[in-house]
Amino acid sequence: MISQGLEGYGRFGSLSRVELERFFHLDDEDRRLIGKRRGDHSCLGFALQVVTVRHLGMFLADPLDVPVELVDYLAEQLGVRAPPHQHRRALQLSPTRPRRQPPSVA
């Protein structure tokens, strides 16, 4: 019985529209923090991390393991487009430009 409970720990189950609206609504403070990110995919990925930690109390070992309906609901709130084929891309970190290294002295 304990193993059955642990199996679902730290994971999302299926989410109804009512659950999405109750537990994953983005308030003004959330939107302010999310709005500091550049690009729709960065905003959506950050929003997914915010609601994941808030709901599960932890980050996922695989941050891409989120229900499609959650991605769609957050994208709807943010007014960004998240077609199904881009859901996984939404969470991937885009490479940042490396910091300039000072010239080496020989």
Could you give a quick summary of the protein structure above?
This protein is mainly alpha-helical and 106 residues long.
Mind describing the biggest β-sheet?
none
Structural class, by secondary structure, is mainly alpha
Estimated helix fraction: 40-55%
**How many β strands by DSSP?**
0
Q: What letter string, H or E per element, gives the SSE order?
A: HHHHHH
Distance between the termini: 66 Å
Chain-averaged pLDDT:
78
Tally of contiguous helical segments: 6
Unreliable segments (pLDDT under 50, ≥5 consecutive)?
Answer: 93-99
Shape: globular
Tell me the fraction of residues in β-strands, as a range.
under 5%
Query: Radius of gyration from the CA trace?
Result: 17 Å
Description:
With 106 residues, the protein is an all-alpha fold. It contains 6 helices and no strands. The protein has helices spanning 2-7, 17-23, 28-34, 40-56, 68-78, 87-91.
Keywords summarizing the entry:
106 residues, mainly alpha, 6 helices
Topology, pairings included?
Blueprint: H1 2-7, H2 17-23, H3 28-34, H4 40-56, H5 68-78, H6 87-91
Helix pairs in contact: 4-5
